[in-house]
Amino acid sequence: MRRTIPSLLAAVAVAFGAPAALAGNYEGCPAEITIGTEGAYPPFNYIGDDGELKGFDVDIAKALCEEMGADCTFETQSWSGIIPGLNAKKYDAIIASMSITEKRDEKVDFTNRYYKTPARFIAAKDMDVEISESGLEGKTVGVQRATVSADFVKDKFGDVANIQTYDTQEEATLDLVSGRVDLVVADAVKLKEGFLASDQGQAFEFKGPGFSDPKWFGEGIGIAVREGEDTLRECFNKAIAGIREDGTYDKISQDNFGMNIYGG
């Protein structure tokens, strides 16, 4: 039986001690992977009271690494610098609730999606507001900079609303509470499970529909790798399919949100 080149390399690795690049459950997948994430985007990725990284993105990353048989470490990076950090080889992949968009695809390569949720606006419960050009005219909207939500709100409502950008989503919601902005727009699950579930969030609610137009929000949330890293990208794709098939994905999603957020 003829062996492929990867099979021959794997055989040599077994004979002489497997190198990191060829270890793991999947042939040819790396044995060590460094994951870049923001660490400031609860409940998807954040640093807990114990100083450890937590959240859905982190749980998914660990499950994918276990599926591949790889040892994973994490590096935190501010959102605005997270793609430059990847391309500077500070880490091997980004798992940080990053939307797959054409603009980002010019700088990195993406896996298949691992979840898909809409963006929504929130405001004070007693505010009567329509999410439209006329309804948002003169309003101040808070949004995290360098996000798909920022691109969306600037393109869609930038001519009529005042757009205030922030380094983190939490800074935006703090200004909502203090009255410095009238509304905030972000991922609906992030807002529902994070801010709206908090004590401060009890006076606020969703306004208007969800938004998921691919023009701004792409095809969902994916894992970013450096351009040309096709082997690593396909290892992640296979692992995503694997944890969905064996029920691991659903358990993680249910544990974090009480529902499956993979999306249709």
From TrEMBL:
GO molecular function list: ligand-gated monoatomic ion channel activity
Localization: Periplasm
Entry keyword Transport: yes
Signal peptide positions on this chain: 1-23
A Pfam family the protein falls into: SBP_bac_3
PROSITE patterns listed in its UniProt record: SBP_BACTERIAL_3
Main localisation: periplasm
Location of the Solute-binding protein family 3/N-terminal domain: 32-260
Keywords for this protein: Periplasm, Signal, Transport
GO cellular component, one term: membrane
Domain of life assignment: Bacteria
InterPro entries: Iontro_rcpt_C, Lys_Arg_Orn-bd, SBP_3_CS, Solute-binding_3/MltF_N
Ionotropic glutamate receptor C-terminal domain span: 32-259
Keyword Transmembrane (UniProt): no
Family membership: Belongs to the bacterial solute-binding protein 3 family.
PANTHER family: ARGININE-BINDING EXTRACELLULAR PROTEIN ARTP (PTHR35936:SF17), MEMBRANE-BOUND LYTIC MUREIN TRANSGLYCOSYLASE F (PTHR35936)
Entry protein name: Amino acid ABC transporter substrate-binding protein, PAAT family
Native organism: Limimonas halophila
